């Protein structure tokens, strides 16, 4: 059976891989330190334009993103957040009060929504998602 790569090609690949791996962790992320390095490297790649599919390093950014995502799924699982909790979070992040939400309706309606007595309707969800630039699904 013929060898697919001769020793010099393997040595060349090994050298390049070791050089690249010294800058970008291209392995399963096992520790918080590995995770922090991977996130920093991905941020630098994205800042350099590697998010675009035509960029020479787009596949590298995608691979690194997949490794980070795999670690995230195990160590930082996504928790279900209620629509009301999400609304409160967005209000807090934007320094808003109940009176700052005309998208929901009158002050009485806002109070009922904020106290959990009333759910958001489709019109309110659409308006809030546009205001906060988030998917409507965060309010469902």
Task: Give the SSE map.
Elements: H1 7-23, H2 32-47, H3 58-75, H4 83-93, H5 107-114, H6 122-132
Brief description of this entry?
By secondary structure, this protein is mostly helical. It has helices spanning 7-23, 32-47, 58-75, 83-93, 107-114, 122-132. Helices cover 58% and strands 0% of the residues.
Verbal overview:
It is a single chain. The protein is mainly alpha-helical and 140 residues long. The protein has two domains: 7-75, no CATH class; 83-139, Orthogonal Bundle (434 Repressor (Amino-terminal Domain)). Helices cover 58% and strands 0% of the residues. Helix 2 packs antiparallel against helix 3. The protein is elongated.
Count of spatially separate domains: 2
The end-to-end span amounts to 59 Å
What's the Cα radius of gyration? 23 Å
Flag low-confidence runs.
Answer: none
Percentage of β-strand residues: under 5%
The counted number of beta strands is 0
Shape descriptor reads: elongated
Query: Tell me about the biggest sheet?
Result: none
Average pLDDT = 91
What is the N-to-C succession of helices and strands? HHHHHH
Structural class: mainly alpha
Task: Enumerate how many helices there are, as a single number.
Answer: 6
Oligomer: single chain
Helical content (DSSP H or I, runs of 4+):
55-70%
């Amino acid at each position: 059976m013929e060898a697919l790569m001769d020793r010099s090609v393997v040595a060349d690949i090994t050298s390049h891989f070791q050089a690249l791996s010294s800058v970008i962790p291209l392995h399963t992320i096992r520790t918080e330190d590995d995770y922090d390095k991977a996130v920093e490297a991905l941020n630098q790649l994205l800042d350099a334009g590697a998010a675009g599919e035509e960029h020479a390093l787009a596949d590298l950014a995608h691979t690194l993103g997949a490794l980070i995502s795999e670690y995230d799924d195990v160590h930082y699982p996504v928790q279900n957040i209620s629509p009301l909790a999400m609304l409160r979070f967005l209000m807090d992040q934007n320094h808003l009060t109940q009176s700052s939400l005309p998208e929901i309706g009158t002050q009485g309606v806002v109070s009922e929504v904020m106290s959990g007595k009333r759910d958001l309707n489709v019109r309110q969800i659409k308006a809030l998602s546009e205001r906060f630039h988030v998917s409507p699904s965060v309010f469902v």
